[in-house]
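Worked example (supplementary).
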Amino acid sequence: MSASEFAERAHVALADAQLRGNLRTATGTIRARRAEAVGELADWEQLREAGRAIKERALRHLDVHLEQLEQTVTAAGGAVHWARDAEEANAIVVRLVEATGAREVVKVKSMATEEIALNAALERAGIVAVETDLAELIVQLAGEHPSHLLVPAIHKNKTEIRDLFRRHLPGCEQLGDDPAELAEAARRFLRERFLRARVGISGANFAVAETGTLCVVESEGNGRMCTTLPETLITVMGIEKVLPRFADLEVMLQLLPRSATGERMNPYTSLWTGVTRTHPPDGPQQLHLVLLDAGRTDVLADAVGRQALHCIRCSACLNVCPVFERTGGHAYGAAYQGPIGAILVPQLSGMREGASLPWASSLCGACYEVCPVKIDIPRVLVHLRGRLVRERADAAAAERAGMRGLARVLASPRAYRLAQALARPGLARLAGRRRAPWWARPAAGWLAERDLAPPPERTFRKWWRGRGSR
Amino acid sequence: MSAREAILARVRAATADVPAGEPPAWERERDAGPDSAYACERHEPAAERTARFAARVREHGARVVEIPDEPGAVAAAVGAACAALGIATALVPADFPAAWTPPGLRRVADEPPLEPAALALAEGVLTGAALGIADTGTIAFDGGAAQGRRALTLVPDVHVCVVRERQLVGSVPEGLEQLAAAARAGRPITLVSGPSATSDIAFERVVGVHGPRTLHVVLATSKTTAAAGAP
Amino acid sequence: MRIALFATCLADTLAPRAAIATTVVLERLGHEVVFPAGQTCCGQMHANSGYRDEGLRIARGFVRTFADERFDAVVAPSGSCVAMLREQLPQLAGDAGDAGLATAALELGERVFELSELLVRELGVEDVGATFPRRVAYHPACHSLRVLRIGDAPLQLLRAVRGLELVDLPQATVCCGFGGLFATKLHEVSGAMLADKLAALRASGAEVCTAVDGSCLLHIGGGLRRAGAATEVLHLAEILASTEPAAA
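After joint prediction of all chains, the assembly is encoded as:
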């Protein structure tokens, strides 16, 4: 099956020395921090298994927990909306914002809203959505897409960021490129917007069905700003994020910070349950939760593939993946990148999009080793490759025929021995070549990167026969 | 068919392979085996827990001053902190104890609640806390006594927080267990583990983007801990 | 012990010295080695490339050939083949609904070993009487490292080889970039990973790079040759079989 889409984008990325340098430094640093943070816990493996078990069971009974979540959020004064796809979700959010009369909203980073392209939908409705995560703001000002799940502006250096701020942020014409100065400039710009915001839009890391509690895990404090100050808060969340019990949070809040940023705990975690009508009222008085399907039920329907929904968006797999380190996020061409992207994007689209992504892996297994909720990514990758071959029967007919023919040979001892003998002259002719001749097209990829040694004088079995009986 | 019915129907169809009668949620008490029984509690002397809490909060870049939990001592420490931080007028939740307020410090109660712009002008805010988690250097707020609403501990740039030793727990599971009641009562909870930080600018950890960039903790310890000479 | 040798299609056809050396080492230790002639391939290339049923068909041949109670164990000079046969095969057979194959594979899998785990864990041997006075770096192949979890077994064996100087390989556990068809389908990315592995080898100062997996060695060796480097690749078995006299 075709890996060419990814190959083409990877080709561009591989030639970008700055990107590769940034990625190498960033992923190397986070890997080391993660290892240290994880190494501190004697019960890390138990936590991982508990995390896996919690998610697995929650997904197997997702309908029960979604219904309970709707009930508890509503009882706490929130409103729950259901969206089958991106279009429906965007329409709901636009309608809710328009009902408030606000023309500007402040947004916390949310992969779900990135996935459904909410900002573009808001823009079409004449509503400005200000991204308030520093890196998301940078990416937004640059008119680009994030290149890493957790560190979206990893492809930008401080000079580029300084230039963006000078161009787009008022009063920043003389800005230097010292990181503290840049952060201060962003802070002033965003603080003004927080203090006057009437509508906040967020995602949610988790939602607890038992109590109706939503949870945002963050570092900068912009999440707190967006979920506390405005009168109206709209949270868009994938249905797979629901946790059955409040107690489940204690596992996730140990797994996530250590896996994501290598910290014992991230700076700020916000937990809110509906609307707080205390005296004085605390936070938004209008609360909306938009539950998003958008292909998640498709993923759920695949008994092997559904473990991709365990994902808690820590990005540990991205940081340890040798492919991601060399190609960066843009090569994946989607909101979800790296190993998790390779198994989620095709499944979310019913195997229609991202068909080249399951190939973007050497199956080294480093991702599975670090996944805090034990998603067996290599297994799912192989499984999806199988689905692509079986379900997209029209594509790559030549490969299919070749592989099937080869399989027949390898399944038959006699055909195999014959093939060994027949292949020898061809292999001898390919030795040392850099380009594949017309009769050895499949070898082109191999020869592009490495030499093929001349075949040995004898096969092993010939040597064995030559020993005589012992 | 509504979106709700459609989605639930799809979920049920997708999970039709799940056997009937299977409990819908994993519960540690019932389901944990040797490979999934994670540690819940730390069994340790209070002094050790307090020392770890103080050390980890300091690692996050906050200042921690330990004083004995005696009448007057807390107020004095609060006074010293405000003086050092240049706070002449402090914002407080309406139920911030008078006993913790030093004479000479003007207090402005958040009642009626201040507008965000006014909060932003505050020199500093004084609150108590719900609990502290030693393992992670986390201070939790749950809208309970002496804490006020969330905006109070969010918008002002300086936060002086009184935490009492008896409010400390060792582990994250212990902390969340104690916070569950607030969640069930519908109260919002905030877990703070240090002044905010972002490492998005060329991988340099820049401290303090939003939220209070200065956090000063007055840790009121028992006589035994103070005597043990916790650092 | 009576040990059946699964040479692997790659060693049989392209790198027989690895299988020859495996035979030599085991016979030197006093075991009987047999080579069931009906063997072909484990099926991993097909199984991992989306041709699951074709892979299973090939693997069925392995089970037919080696599920013989006359063999005490089956050994293969390849971590990835053993990972396929022991760990993946039962799972894939289950996915395909072939319970019979799944059970047979599970049972047989208990007696299938990669060479270094057979020597160290099953036979309790670290010193196989080898001499190899060269500077050697060990590359831990991904399947052996993460699926079979052979851990330090190869290093324990290498440390017992007379005259051998074991050097540290920087970032050793990073994948070499072979990955089966990945090496050709995404050859540029594969090549970039290979370049870093070669740089690490250069930094280590090794004269020889060794591993328990022939596919990694084919890929790394091919890269070394393309780069005109003097460093050689040798399968772990070849080093263990070596009784090279010390240099005069």
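Two points are worth noting when inspecting this output. Helices of chain B lie at 3-14, 28-31, 46-59, 73-85, 116-121, 172-184, 223-227. The longest helix of chain B spans residues 46-59.
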